[in-house]
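Researcher: Excuse me, tokens okay?
***
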Amino acid sequence: VQLQASGGGLVQAGESLRLSCAASGMIFSVATMAWYRQAPGKQREFVARITATSITIYLDSVKGRFTISRDNAKKMVYLQMNSLKSEDTAIYYCSSSPWWGQGTQVTVSS
């Protein structure tokens, strides 16, 4: 299984980014997909999850700002991040238990 995350970058507070994760080597359509993040000096934390039937759940601090979605035909999962804050700065990881992608850096300057 491979999970390839992309789309990170440096933005200013209030701006948006869309992260993408390309999955391979798995039956994507039945997999629950998730995004996690790890800020410097902090533990990795859950951000958002989407089930095979597109049920979603979010970390409280990103509710209303982030949206997770999936495209089963393309084997892709996305994280649309709006109204970014400096506290969103972290390495973002795509995951489908027990597998992890390599992470993509998101830096939000205030």
Notes: The radius of gyration is 13 Å. The first strand starts at residue 2 and ends at 6. The chain has a mean pLDDT of 97.
